[in-house]
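Data availability (excerpt). All sequences and predicted token strings are deposited with the supplementary files. A representative entry, Probable peptidoglycan glycosyltransferase FtsW, is shown inline so that the format can be inspected without opening the archive.
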Amino acid sequence: MNNLLQKTKGDKVIWTIVFFLSAVSLLAVYSSTGSLAYRVYSGHTEYYLFKQLSVLILGILIIYFAHRVNYTIYSRVAQIGFLLSIPLLVYTLAFGSNFNDASRWIRLPVINLTFQTSDIAKLALFMYVARQLSKKQGVIEDFRKGFLPIILPVAIICGLIMPANMSTALLLGASCMLLCFIGRVPLKFLAGMVAAGTVLVVLMFGIAKLTGMEGRTKTWLNRIESFTSTESHEEPYQVQQAKIGIVNGGLLGKGPGNSTARNFLPHPYSDFIFAIILEEYGIFGAFLVMAAYLILLLRSIRIFKNCPYAFGAFLALGLSVTLVIQALMHMAVNVNLLPVTGLTLPLVSMGGSSVIFTSLSIGIILSVSRHVEEAEQKQAVAAQAAAA
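Structure token line:
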């Protein structure tokens, strides 16, 4: 055990956040799935609790082993991951499991396990963009040599994710744009890319409307229209139930396991788990959860500033930015500041592939942090030796 602890390196604050969010996940998932498990599994209310516990344990093991890997290896993995993501996303669109007219999942035939290919694509894309940004710093202001090799992979992956999951595609695109801005990509290039993306989205909606092949676009339009409507009766059912739960929670909440919104909210264990946290732990408890994600971002910014190599710096910051933006968007949806999306709360919402790939992202961030700490320790020893 002591040997394991000695090998556990990296930012201790980020490790603390991981265990804190895991504890929140177990409490919130158990509360939000108790009634469902009782109905489905004949009184076994702990079924989903133990399932989530096993996933979180696997996630912590992934974090540990990922943080022990030299982060420079992820630069090579990025190329393979990016190239594999393209056929996986194409296969998902053509043959993936459908839910609400969206093909997001691939089902593995032997073990009957489903996973979202967009989770693989997000991680692979961020590693690839970080690699390209670090390599192209000398020609970053050249459109053909510097900008296109970075932005074309972003356009391809986001374009393949968008038909089934627009919220994830927009989140991924925005996070990549932010990372490019930090990586000194000229604003005129980024503005042009944002304009082109906006035109493509509008065209996609227009073509779907004219051809009658609306599919997911009809769902997106309905969500936007209900969000912008001033009539309260036009609000989506889940938004109404989330608001009731939040109001009942007040400042300190109703206490663990005392949620009533869980009995009415669709997917209270995933898409609306933050509403359950607000109801049971109040504004104070929700603030602690939000603060955990913001502290994760601040610690990652510290890693970015102290990392001596561009790839590690961009990798740590890029992965943390997408996790925190996803968390904030999930919270904004739950309190009706944004239209309803399918975004989960990282490391808290119930899930398999999402927890696994979130854990892998955090493990990579800690890998960079570990090497930053080792470099600082070597510098300190060298300084002491020089002073002596």
